[in-house]
Structures are given as structure tokens and as C-alpha cells.
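Take a record:
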Amino acid sequence: MDRRNYLKTSGAAIAGMGLAGCLGSLTGGSGETITIGSDIPYKPFEYREADGDLTGFDVEIAEAVFGDEMGRDYEFKQTSFDGIINSLNNGNFRVIMSAMTINDERAQEVDFSDPYFTAYQTVLVLKDGNISAKEDLKGKNVGVQKGTTGEAAAEQLKEEFGGDLTLKSYDQITGAFDALTNNQVSAVINDNTVSAEFANENDAVVFLEGDGAAVEAGQEAPPYLTLTVENYGIAFRQDDDDFRSEVNDAIAAIKENGTYDDIYSNYFQG
């Protein structure tokens, strides 16, 4: 976990893996195919390449955990993040693996695996815009994705500003990014690694600088404003304790044997 300071995406997808959206063809599996609910696209965690193959950090971690360590067949099922917990509890898939932050509110409805990633909520702005500090966001429109902790962080910022902030919520983060580049919002609040992936591909946007939650927590902070410090986990229905324990063992195994670090280095630097 200590490799996640100064996170920046490498922008490199692992095309050679050939990972398709349905990954139930692995050999050596036993029992039911594990269906994974995920909001796609959310680059670099889960996204499709030009040929339609599904790839990303979460996708490769899923292969390592479910396929390699547990010997299970599995497949990803695309679903909107805004309703993803309800879909899990309605039995539409076995687990959620979708860059999901562990928090108390969600833990009332699902159980989480041990953390497998640390992220920060950050602010993306136009390079040539008029936003250079957090206070400049007062009175502005801010883009977020529905149902995410980015939306929650924006709500907290709105409260800090005495209500003087307007949130524009989008079904997918790509909608918020498009709104920023089209000057429909002044900023986007979202996970740092996903925003970094977008910034690496778009010279017109940059991270808003400043100290924040990571500094306040005594961490070696990224070189930009952090609104929160968060851990990602795999989500389970609350009656699936034995399976969750097996997954936790598999997560521990890939961290111990170096597989996690190999996958991590393909997508992130630092």
C-alpha cells in the first residue's frame, strides 16, 4: 500500500492480456461463475480498448484473485454506479468490483473485502481557467458522477461554502469530464487516478493545487489538493461471509507473491 504516494497514471493499458468483457472461459474453475458488477468505463480501473476488450487495474486484479488464486470462472457485468449496491443486493451479480470506496454509509448495506487500493478525491480544472485555489470554486458549477464519493466530497465542499456551490451530476464520469472541457462546469471532483488518466490525455486540464486531507492526515501527499483519503474494497452481500473470507485470502496472497505490485506498476507510477 505504501507505493501509492504521488499517484500518477501511466496511461498504459495491457493490450497483450486480451481480456474480454466476459471472462468466464478460464480453465480449472469450480462451481458457479463469479459475476462482478462494475461501472464501465472508469479508466484506468475498468474500460474497453478499441477492439472491445475489457482491461484495467480492477480487471487484472480480478483475474489474479478469482482466476489465478481461487481457480474460479468469472465475468464482468456492466451496471450504473448510482444503483450498483441495490443491484448487488437484488442478486444481479455476486460482488462489486468498481473502484468502490469503503465507507460507513455503504457498510450498512454491504460488506467489504480488505482494502486493495488507496485513492484521493481531487479537483480537476481548466489550465487556462480562473480557478487557482479551492476558494475560487465558490459560486461555481462542479461536475461529479452520481452515487460516488466524489459527489459526497462535493456535497461536503458545498456545506463548507455555506451552500454557495452548484453540483452537476452525471451518470458516468466521462459526462463530467466532457462538461469541463466544454465549459459547462468549472471543475470536476473525482478519484485522483481516474482524473490523472484524463489529464494525461488532455492538455487543457490540470489538477487544482493546494494542501488538503492527505496533509492533514500526516501522509506524504500528492502534489495537488486532496479533499479526502479513501480505500477501495470489493463489495459483497452481507450474507456471503465465507466467500468474502476466501477473497481476502486471495488478496493477501497476490500482495505477498508480488502479483499485486506487478499489476500496480502497469497502471501507476510512484
